[in-house]
């Protein structure tokens, strides 16, 4: 409104000024009017286009923050790549939060992946509902054991939650999962974010998802295969993917680092001390441009087990999550005192093709002077987006996220089509009853848009069982399919 009044005043004043003004004054006046008109047109175009911060918009350019006193400006890189759906309130950095507030333009919602982000009129409060529905079906054939040749269905995830923020720095997130017909609190934390020089950081406190390995740090709604690699599922603390504690994270232009200190998962047992887990991870992108990324990563953890968590028995998925008979099992392992694990990651993408290799080792310490129980795992996987979309690699977190599909089927396009392949191997040492196994997988992913996708995997698996009902070498094929929606 002030801009319009100023423009009207200039227009009505022009005839009077023209009688006394010099040619130079008139030229200055014309330039001022042109600038006002250009500003009004830009604002009108923005409002007519419905610009908020929707997923269809390109990622913002780096934000330049002037420091003054002769100091060079700080350049803050937006916390996502152009091929990713912009993050929700709990995953933004300070610059992104400020950008969202500055671009409200009187609007109180922004549309991203399926559900809106709500803003208060002054931009102080932000809120977004979250949801995840992942449905699987699988069929196994070829095993020499009839009990393994099963056809099953299951809900990989059935989640509902919320995330939001207050002001620039405070944020929170909460999610519960109902996939086993029980209420299971998964992510539940509060956090604080800010900047340090040219870097930014956040600190999260609550029930936290591990930052450990490439696919172990990728959400179940973003993994390129129906199940994570054996590196992510076997080289893991005994408390598994979640723990209650604190996680500070530091981000710079080409990578990030995190350190996590947690106790157990959320439980009702306060009769004994929790286990203690310290976990760290860092990744670095020595090459990162518009269509090429090189990813290097390393991580490790050390876990001291409580007196109530001394059983180390494990059964690792090798041919599909929803066939409980198809596992690489260790047999009973009692008397554990702690675990130590570590791993490395190397991969990246060029154009629509990506490759990722992971390897890890876990030493489980046993009481009474017994030797460690050791787990080795490694995997090599890759994919090709035949529709030309870039892989949904998140350079801020060093993991996969939700893609921003170039041509959604709801807009007349083909969606994004990806072909995938993987080989993985799992071996155990130190326990006579622990088995080994490997699997080769080929897959097809079809992203209908940025938050709906279907997946199809064909797995050739091989196990060498040394305990339980399925002894000796066995092999077969598992065909699995998934439909998922993530909001």
From TrEMBL:
Highest taxon of source: Bacteria
Signal peptide stretch: 1-18
Keywords: Signal
Keyword set includes Ubl conjugation: no
InterPro entries the record matches: Porin_dom_sf, Porin_O/P
Protein name in the entry: Porin
Lineage: Bacteria, Pseudomonadati, Pseudomonadota, Alphaproteobacteria, Sphingomonadales
